[in-house]
Amino acid sequence: MDMLSLLLIKGCLFATFLTTASIYDLRTREIPNWISFALLLTGCLQLHLGSAMFGLFLTGAPYLIAAMITNGKIGGGDIKLMAACGFVLGAGGGLLQSIIGLSLVLLAAVGIALCNGIPSAKKTALPLAPFLSAGGFFAFILTHL
Predict the structure, then answer these.
(1) Which residue in 34, 30, 97, 32 sits closest to 62, CA to CA?
(2) Which domain holds residue 130?
């Protein structure tokens, strides 16, 4: 199989698992472990082990630290999802995914504050996976194509 076909398969699988994570997070506020595992397997396509492992730790660690600082406002599913995405994207792609995804969360929070007031925005818990997934889509495109 040629490299372009493998990249296309990797991108389609990545997008499929991120979309699935988003749907689960929107419906249940949980991301099943199998999705993160499937993303890790997706990262094995065109694997660069050093880059993948560095991406896994560098992308997942800030979410783990944030979860500890905020007493669990960021869930374990988000941590595992981002670590797995870092494995697929590498450290630079994982960082880009975080920047895009968290910027989208911030925009949504600002929108809620403008429409419903700041107290309402502070009380609104947003599922992260849809925003982080959107960041992942863009990061994959920007880093792989």
Answers:
(1) 97
(2) 3-144
